[in-house]
Amino acid sequence: MISSLHRPTLAKVDLSAISSNIKQIQDHVPQSVKTFAVVKANAYGHGAVAVASHTQRLVDGFCVSNIDEGIELRQAGIRKPILVLGVVLPGEVPLVRDYRLTLTIASLEWLELAQAKPLDLSNLLVHIAVDSGMGRIGVRSLAEANDLIAGLRQAGCQVKGIFTHFATADEADDRKFQEQLAFFKELVAGLDYCPELVHASNSATSLWHSEGIFNALRLGLVIYGLNPSGQELSLPYKIKPALSLETALVHVKKVPAGADVGYGATYTSSQEEWIGTLPLGYADGWTRDMQGFDVLVAGQRCPIVGRVSMDQITIRLPQSYPLGTKVTLIGKNGDQLISATDVAQQRGTINYEVLCLLSDRVPREYK
Description:
Layout (H helix, E strand, L loop, with lengths): L9 E4 L1 H12 L7 E5 L1 H5 L3 H8 L5 E4 L2 H9 L6 E6 L5 H6 L3 E4 L2 H9 L8 E6 L11 H13 L3 E7 L10 H15 L7 E5 L1 H6 L7 E4 L23 E6 L2 E5 L4 E2 L5 E2 L4 E6 L15 E4 L2 E6 L7 E5 L8 E8 L2 E3 L1 H8 L3 H6 L7 E3 L1
Parallel strand pairs: 1-20, 2-3, 2-9, 3-4, 4-5, 5-6, 6-7, 7-8, 8-9
Antiparallel strand pairs: 1-10, 10-18, 11-14, 12-13, 14-17, 15-16, 15-18, 16-17, 18-19
Helix pairs in contact: 1-3
Pathway: Amino-acid biosynthesis; D-alanine biosynthesis; D-alanine from L-alanine: step 1/1
Cofactor: pyridoxal 5'-phosphate
Pfam families: Ala_racemase_C, Ala_racemase_N
């Protein structure tokens, strides 16, 4: 999808806020702990290449979800280690080797398939995934972990790390978290060969569960300045949101009482009203369920009226404003603030999804 550069809708990304957030977290963990910045899904909508380029001096490596995200970083000149967190089928090993990526290996079946092809696994960089209770990927027993590590090393792989992922680290009830942590600790303690890097700390674990920090962190949402728990847990220290979403009024008109607005005529004016049109819609990630939520104009909250269209939304204004007047959808305008978490609550989802849904059609502007 091509970026729409010639309209006033854009996401502004403050790279200094991201680097500040990384330093803030590093100040609260032992200096010996390595930091991996998670830049999957286009750095949670912030722009993977820009974020990685700006932060590579602060971190020890990066995490992505798939090979193509890793290749994008390599082609942009990123030289730090890049761990692919998702499972990559064995047939892609030659490409992984070409771009010096680190693979996640999640099962003995993967190794057996790779050896049946056969594939040269010598010097392939890998981390082992452990399913401690998340239920997605990873070995589920000490015996399987030992067999997998031994098999990979015998095949010539460099087994650099082992990790797990917590399902409830961002929740107030920590019983599930403690069960997973105990399982992972016991498994690591029983390994015949323990890799150099042991990591389980996502953003939530790094913030609220210091006992889950081993010798490396995987920092995702928190470096972008958002609370991984939404509003369930209070942040232990301040972080700075890095992204704001802005557009501008492209049409303003006064409608009489009884005028319908938008698809399905789901909004009817109750009196004479000023209606403004904004150039963005669900194709940009501003989904249809945002009808009834607010945007900010001249420091005032203005409701979205009528259905969100693919390319346009309509808002009710308190008065007429000139075309080109700035409108804020995420961020601060005057004394008012709308956060990605506020948007998520309107949608009944999480702030991660709000950011990731911002499409490539929205240009990113960096400072």
